Hints:
Radius of gyration: 20 Å
Number of helices: 6
Order of helices and strands: EEHHHHHH
Structural class: mainly alpha
Amino acid sequence: MPDDLVLKLAITPHFAISIDKEDGTPPEVWKLCLDYRALARIEEATGLDLKKVSDWNNLSSGKHFPKIVWGALQRFNPDVDVERVLDILNPEAQRILSDRMFELCFPGAREAYQKVLDAQAAGETADPNVPAVSVTT
């Protein structure tokens, strides 16, 4: 049937972080995954839709980000609660995690943006919009 749509499942992108407890015990490993279940949990907890670039601009470090990390942990580390995330997070970790999670939501966006910046630095216009076609009669 040529009109049928076939969805091929793939491994959902995720990444792991090691939590160094600084007490000599082995690191704790957390896996973060932004599947749709995580996105729904995060939206319910924060009111933000992470599939909208504009909502990334409105993230609050203390109010939203721990809940985002918590939501992303639920697939592989459901035992980690928001309080534990708050115990672990710091501003340096937030920057690193935020960049990685943005890349999960918008694969290739960073490279595309860098390409525009490089083109602008080279003096190119780097306008991604194709000029509109005009028809005269």
